[in-house]
Write a structure and sequence with these properties.
It comes from Trichlorobacter thiogenes. This protein has about 270 residues and is an alpha/beta fold. The protein is about 35% helix and about 20% strand. It has a single domain, classed as Aldolase class I (TIM Barrel, Alpha-Beta Barrel). The longest helix is centred in the middle third of the chain and has 21 residues.
């Protein structure tokens, strides 16, 4: 496990971790359309250019098209000098798509100095970490919304795992076990790990501090508590207030560092936060 000083060196230039996030840029490559779970708060049925939320992209890319996009951005006199990170965050789950690994390989060979980053639901994380490590993945975000399977079962409708569909508590147990094991193994491999947690009033707010305690013990670097965007199966639940979100983050700060500048980026976001 890296020391705090080592981690601080590793996060330099990554806008999700660094204080100078307004000066360093990132580009998300939308190469991963397939997903292996159904989150109650996720919908990908529509896209608006003015819409900023996870799971949204205007256009899917192949790995070779993604490499062309990186070349284009890096050659830009405006964007190029700010760009430090290339990430894959969907619009599905990166680990459910072979294109993710192909893209990281191509981009890593062409631009070895760019930080490689990925966001995942964690279902396939334990079995994928050796491949990601070999590709030079620097930082990893895992979305974890519960500690108890009963709570997770209210958030996730089903998961597809190794060719079989699971729902309810069975799905929740598989997902949570993979997520926490994945965080631990990623930290052991030297990756900088951020955990995203969607604050869902009436469902998981009581477990957010428990998530914080557990991921801190596993070596996660920072936690990002995000407000629910009411849509899909959870459209009837109001988003947490600004005051409620701030209170949860302030309380969790006593356990693990909190990210407070998240913009809940699109899967094709490019530029500064």
């Amino acid at each position: 496990m890296a020391t705090t000083c080592e981690q601080m060196k590793k996060i330099q230039g990554h806008p999700c971790f660094e204080q100078n996030h307004h000066k360093t840029g990132r580009m998300h490559l939308a190469v991963a359309p397939a997903c292996n779970i159904k989150c109650g708060y996720c919908t990908r049925k529509h896209d608006c250019a003015n819409e900023s939320r996870p799971g949204v992209t205007s256009r899917l890319m192949t790995p070779s098209e993604a490499l062309d996009k990186v070349r284009e951005v890096m050659a830009s006199p405006i964007l190029g000098p700010t760009m430090r990170v290339v990430g894959i965050a969907g619009p599905g789950d990166p680990l459910a798509n072979q294109q993710t690994f192909e893209t990281f390989k191509l981009v890593g060979e062409a631009f070895p100095d760019l930080i490689k980053c990925m966001s995942t639901n964690g279902l396939l994380l334990p079995e994928s970490l050796d491949r990601l490590h070999a590709l030079g993945l620097h930082s990893l975000t895992v979305t974890i919304n519960a500690v108890n399977p009963e709570t997770a079962a209210q958030i996730y409708r089903h998961v597809y795992y190794h060719g079989k569909r699971y729902s309810g508590k069975d799905a929740a147990e598989i997902l949570l076990a993979s997520q926490y094991e994945g965080v631990q193994r990623a930290v052991e491999l030297g990756m900088v790990v951020k955990v995203n947690t969607v604050l869902i009033p009436g469902i998981n707010e009581a477990e957010v501090p428990q998530i914080a305690e557990r991921i801190k013990g596993l070596g996660a670097f920072v936690m990002n508590v995000m407000p629910l965007i009411p849509q899909a199966d959870l459209a009837h639940i109001p988003a947490p207030s600004t005051e409620q979100l701030a209170e949860v983050r302030n309380n969790n700060e006593r356990i693990i560092s909190q990210m407070r500048h998240c913009k809940q980026c699109r899967a094709d976001a490019i530029g500064l936060l």
